[in-house]
């Protein structure tokens, strides 16, 4: 709650709960649900790095990332994702409007989740062929251990 109050997007909206929880979990060394001043300092540096990256992809300087900017960001980060997948992310995480876009908090959340699930996939894709065979429970275990 306190972290959410401390962080804002370019449109002055607070960071969403999911992103705050992801970041708290990342910087909470004691697993107490809290971060100390050192963890908070590290968290602010982490956010600044993401903000710098976000601003690189926000070509029109609107303070949010639209579909084409998101596609370019994924491509430059090394993700070969379809336009349909980017549209799905915009529909799930974007602001509701005729031209949906992603704010910084959701960009951080999406990128952290993509990185985490990609790492989990690569652990199973030892031959780097782009396909794995998983049981349903293995899949759920991958998701739960990486996303929660």
TrEMBL record:
GO terms for biological process: COPII vesicle coating. It is found in: Cytoplasmic vesicle, COPII-coated vesicle membrane; Endoplasmic reticulum. Gene3D superfamilies: EF-hand. Its main location: membrane. Pfam families: EF-hand_6 (PF13405). The keyword Lyase does not apply. Keywords: Calcium, Cytoplasm, Cytoplasmic vesicle, Endoplasmic reticulum, Membrane, Metal-binding, Repeat. Residues 45-80 form the EF-hand domain. One of its GO terms (cellular component) is endoplasmic reticulum. InterPro entries: EF-hand-dom_pair, EF_Hand_1_Ca_BS, EF_hand_dom, Peflin/Sorcin_CaBP. It comes from the Eukaryota. PANTHER family: PEFLIN. This is Peflin. It comes from Pelecanus crispus.
């Amino acid at each position: 709650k306190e972290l959410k109050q401390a962080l804002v997007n370019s449109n002055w909206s607070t960071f969403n709960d999911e992103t705050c929880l992801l970041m708290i979990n990342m910087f909470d060394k004691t697993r107490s649900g809290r971060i100390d001043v050192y963890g908070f300092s590290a968290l602010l540096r982490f956010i600044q790095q993401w903000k710098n990256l976000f601003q690189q992809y926000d070509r029109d300087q609107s303070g949010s990332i639209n579909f084409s900017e998101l596609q370019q960001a994924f491509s430059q980060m090394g993700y070969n994702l379809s336009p349909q997948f980017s549209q799905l992310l915009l529909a799930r995480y974007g602001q509701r409007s005729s031209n949906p876009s992603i704010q910084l908090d959701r960009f951080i959340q999406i990128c952290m989740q993509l990185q985490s699930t990609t790492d989990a996939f690569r652990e199973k894709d030892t031959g780097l062929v782009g396909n794995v065979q998983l049981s349903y429970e293995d899949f759920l275990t991958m998701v739960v251990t990486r996303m929660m």
